[in-house]
Amino acid sequence: MIHSLSEAFSSTILKATGASSLRVDSVIQELWSGYGQILRINLAGGTRHSVVAKHVQLPLNQEHPRGWNTNLSHDRKVFSYQVETNWYQTWGTRCDRLCRTPEFLACDRGSEDVLLLLEDLDASQFPVRLTSVTKQQLKACLQWLAEFHALFMGEEPLGLWQTGTYWHLETRPGELEALEDDLLKAAAPRLDQCLKEARFQTFVHGDAKLANFCFSAVGDKVAALDFQYVGGGCGMKDVAYFIGSCLEEEECESNELALLDWYFDCLVGALNRRRPEVDANAVVAEWRGLFPVAWTDFHRFLKGWCPGHWKINTYSERMAKRVIERFL
Q1: Hey, which of 17, 136, 158, 203 would disulfide with 152, CB 3.0 to 4.6 Å?
Q2: Contact, 137 vs 217, CB < 8 A?
């Protein structure tokens, strides 16, 4: 069912696009836990044929699919939409063709809902969504992350999450409490501290899974969306999370070194172009050692949040065991 747009929101869309009329075409996606919809809107009379509207509506009844219905969970989601709006209004304009994101067009607020209006990436030559990737497509995403991390290296995440990602320890006390792996639970604060205290900090996308990347028809170019959890952090959090979202256990283990080499080659090139004052080799030296820590940190969240999740596998368990031995 398509939620209707208010006259005020419709007016905002027409004014921002110069169109004479609009029609809600389809629901692209339902937002997590019933917090609204992402809509494709067709336009007439302007320069754009379509736009995408993220229509956030606070639910009367929270229905989290895994049962985490708490005030903290609700507050986290509400703040995440504020962060995403701040991102597009303040920071997203700095992204370029090498770390492509949707163009921000407008924002409007009602009494209990928010409209975020964005460029339609389908209409801008990024029409493909994937559930599995070729090596070329995987590398394109890692290159995007490298460019993104280089662009925002050393920036203060004003208006964003101070600590990016949706799983970091401060916002997930319930999942930590539910974690039955005693050694991992004991190590969790140290893992979090290690990532926060890394010398080199940047902005992390915060939810850099395959579903949040849009591909060109050929698959060699990519754009990213969904910036609800963008904020400060070590870039390895994005890289570990992304690789885990794409590959099965055996593929992760056999491709880990080559994928990290590719990412770091891209990062060094991007830093040399974008931030020549930063010692790129020092970044690589520090972050390589933090990749297993970032992987284990997400593994910690998963085991508390959903102990039967498919990403919990022997590869992750072995990596976590090695990392925990360093901290305990």
Answers
A1: 203
A2: no
Question: What CATH number is associated with residue 252?
Answer: 3.90.1200.10
State the DSSP code for 89: I
Tens digit of each residue's pLDDT (9 = 90 or more) over 59-80: 655 454 444 355 777 788 888 9
117 and 142 inside one domain:
no
Q: Do 186 and 76 belong together in one domain?
A: no
- Residues 134 and 68: their CA atoms lie apart, in Å, by 35
With H, G, I as helix, E, B as strand and everything else as coil, classify residue 124: helix
d(CA 234, CA 221): 24
Pairing between β-strand 222-224 and β-strand 202-204 as defined by DSSP bridges? unpaired
Does residue 26 form part of some domain? yes
**Domain, as residue range, for 39:** 7-124
Backbone phi, then psi, for 38, in 5-degree steps? -105, 125
**Residues 68 and 154 reside in one and the same domain:** no
Taking only the tens place, the pLDDT of each residue in 23-63 is 999 999 998 778 899 999 999 999 999 999 999 987 655 45
* Ranges 66-70, 142-146, 210-214, 252-256: which has the least confidence: 66-70
